[in-house]
Amino acid sequence: MEALWTNISTGEISAYEQLYISLYKRFFNYGRKFTADIPMLEDVLQEVLLTVWMQRERIPALQNPHAYYFASFRNALFARLKQAQNMMPVASVSEEIDFSADHFIINKEWNQEMQQNLLRALNSLTPRQREAIYLRFYEGFSYAEVAVALGITEKATYKIMARALLQLRSTMNLPILTVLLLLRQLPV
Q: Does some domain include residue 94?
């Protein structure tokens, strides 16, 4: 990937075409985890990949171009999602507002049920996975700090966390983003 980036930064169009082909499907699949809006997703893909080409001379030599590309795409996608969320028509906002007591009661019950489901799912993890989740989400440790605390490599920490999150997603039958939000909201 670094050699490809070097060729792109010098203006080699065939290197850009190769990068475009290799990243398009990966970005598309990654973006689908966050939105089902295909036209918007394709717009963001086009914008990011075009920006890579247009700003190739301004972007410094990259240590890890792969991470840079994904971070650029992710940031652009989240900005677009936030923009789309903020552009909701005023009429639809007023129709969606519901301040009834029933709404708050149902919402509170749903939150309690989700927290109970999360606790059951957490208890289904291995002790090592639970400890990694605790350190990462409740103590705010970085992956490197979790690795030191558990006495394992950082790579092993990523693997443990990935497996734990996949199991939580599977057990709870929820999207990974919802699981992550629930983990951040669960009281210790």
A: no
Whether 132 maps to a domain, the answer reads yes
Report percent pLDDT > 90 for the chain: 14
pLDDT in tens, 37-79: 888 888 888 888 788 777 777 766 666 676 777 788 888 888 8
Q: Which of 139, 133, 134 is nearest to 167 (CA)?
A: 133
Q: How far apart are CA 12 and CA 4, in angstroms?
A: 9
* C-alpha–C-alpha distance, residues 171 and 163, integer Å: 12
Give me the domain span that covers residue 49: 2-86
* CA 94/CA 71 separation, integer angstroms: 35
- pLDDT < 50: residue spans in the chain: 89-97
For residue 91, is it within any domain? no
Contacts of 108 (CB under 8 A, 6+ apart): none
Whether 41 and 35 have beta carbons less than 8 Å apart is answered as: yes
For the whole model, what pTM was predicted? 0.45
